[in-house]
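Lecture 7 notes: from sequence to structure.
We start with the chain below.
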Amino acid sequence: MPIHCNANKDDIKKIVLMPGDPLRAKYIADNFLENVRQVNSVRNMLAYTGTYKGKEITVFSSGMGMPSMGIYCYELYKFYDVDTIIRIGSCGSYNKNLNLSDIILIDQSYTEGNFAYEWSEKECHIAKSDEKTNDIIEKTSKNISIPCIKGNTLCNDCFDGYLEDIPAFVKRFPKDLNILACEMEAFALFYIAKHFNKKASCLLTVVDSFYTKESSTSEEREKSLNDMITLALESSLSL
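Predicted structure tokens for the same chain:
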């Protein structure tokens, strides 16, 4: 039985959108879904199930960092037979050509950490999202005119904004991966999805930039996050 979720099995649907912030999950439920019911409250990791344009979808918060993501996506895949999880989050840009509010669709997630070794004693530092799910998201992006940029990101164990030597951090990025941005959960999601032969994808909104030193205002974040949420929900209709 799951330890960190008190939902009934029928409460969780096959497609799950997964923000990190529990209050963002509530925001999505309140503003985008109909016929909403709260289905999880353990540790205040809020989850809601409702309908979007007639399709039942669950929104389940993951918390911050790979350990927390690993717990919740594991339980969703294993105990609730979830088929697809789309992480929707924010990120910091490490690419000069990215602007605030740009949406990134992750292809591969790279980590310097040892999540894979602890899980399965494998030296794995790159995890890939589901290609078919990404294809649907890219097609939907064009159809509804909410552009996204496909590329690779870094999944960090530490919040990069607090690092003492960010230039040294950037120099460690594998040059062949062309790292666009940094976040903290996608590698664990992709790795656990592969373990269960399930599907996982990740959309990120750029909210600050290492190169321009810009940071989104609260109003700008809400608008840009709304675009990302809409893209995820519209894509879910085709999954």
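Points to note: Strands lie at 15-18, 34-40, 47-52, 55-60, 84-93, 103-110, 126-128, 149-155, 179-183, 199-209. The first strand starts at residue 15 and ends at 18.
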